[in-house]
Amino acid sequence: MAERHWLPGTIIATALAFAAACDSGGDGDATSKTTPAPPDATSTVATPSPAATAGDAAPPAVVEDGYTTEAAFPQLAFERMIEIALIPGDDDHAVVITQDGTVRRFSLTDPGGEPSMFLDVREKIIDDPGNEEGLLGIAFSPEYADDGRFYVYYSAGPPRRTVLERYTTAGDEADAASGETVLVVDQPFPNHNGGGLEFGPDGYLYLGLGDGGSGGDPQGNGQNTNTLLGKILRIDVSAESAYTIPPENPFAASGGAPEIFAYGFRNPWRITFDRETGDLWAGDVGQGTVEEVDLVTADGNYGWNIMEGDICFREDDCSADGLVAPRAVYPNGDGYCSVTGGYVYRGRAMPELDGWYIFADYCGGTVWGLDTSDPSAQPLQLVDTDFQVPSFAEDAAGELYLITFNGGIQRLVRR
Prior knowledge:
- The chain has one helix spanning 144-147, and strands spanning 67-72, 81-86, 93-98, 102-107, 116-120, 135-140, 149-156, 161-170, 173-174, 180-186, 197-199, 205-208, 231-235, 260-263, 268-273, 280-284, 290-296, 307-308, 311-312, 328-331, 339-344, 356-361, 366-371, 380-384, 391-394, 400-403, 409-414.
- It is mostly beta strands.
- It has a domain at 80-326: TolB, C-terminal domain (Neuraminidase), CATH 2.120.10.30.
- It starts with 66 loop residues before the first strand and ends with a strand.
């Protein structure tokens, strides 16, 4: 496999601290590398390395290309798996969602167990969905063990729109009749739907939305604070129905859409919180020149479509004043096409990676790590895979998995 090295780019700390996959519509697509077959049923579930304990020797240094992946959860062999989510209060099960509209519950401990249908929204998904449409995200309420509530985000139509919907459970599956629409956003084009859906440490629900699609943000949504497109939203869904606005939101009182937490995104693909610090991280897909990683803070303007990553996009009107620079960038092209945001590693199997943000490129399959404790750090290549990587997953112990379109579920391990 060809070795890849990080290409120079601006790496700047913020002041406070594909679906998204390859874009469609002439937006800078790239062809992925030749890929192996998915793991078969004889694969074994990966087992964590022994946890580090007090008195152990210092962990090894993080070494370039010092990591690899191994097949995990061989019972998960569905097409276009796009997210795995843990079920709060259930240490033995999680769910996997597929882009065509299924949510299946599966055992974390029994690789021979058959996954069961948890929720099926295939009839609600838009007809003939594009590469970036479908069921895109799921999030369980932090109080799920008591309230049984969870949320899904999917593309519907016609007319073309994305829908945030709430369900409750009945036993080991969702109550399909409990579905309640929380938020609907009109979508002008079939790409840039976003789809990251996460509860923050503040208990609010965060949702990443793309700029509405096509190429170049023709409607100017990224910089328009009166639309929800091109934003990361924060809403309070603790009430019995719909949602309310957190009073701390930047435009809660006036000046823009009150749901907005941060803006200036092209297509934030996967947003996650650092389980230790509570920091919010996002991968934002580039137009075709630069991919970026952002450390997201309230009221931050992340630049699109004035900037693409750390370079000017508007040739006739480009000023970085007031914009939050990306935490890291890499060039699109040469096999790279679309950043896949990941997680800050907080597991114990690889203590040397503690505090490193792990992310990938969907087409290239390269996985990088970024030391979040060092504002001047540049990303380091951890492993160059042959997988298409639309998402990552994190287990209860903080170990990380690659969700792939062509290799099943892969666990990140030390080489």
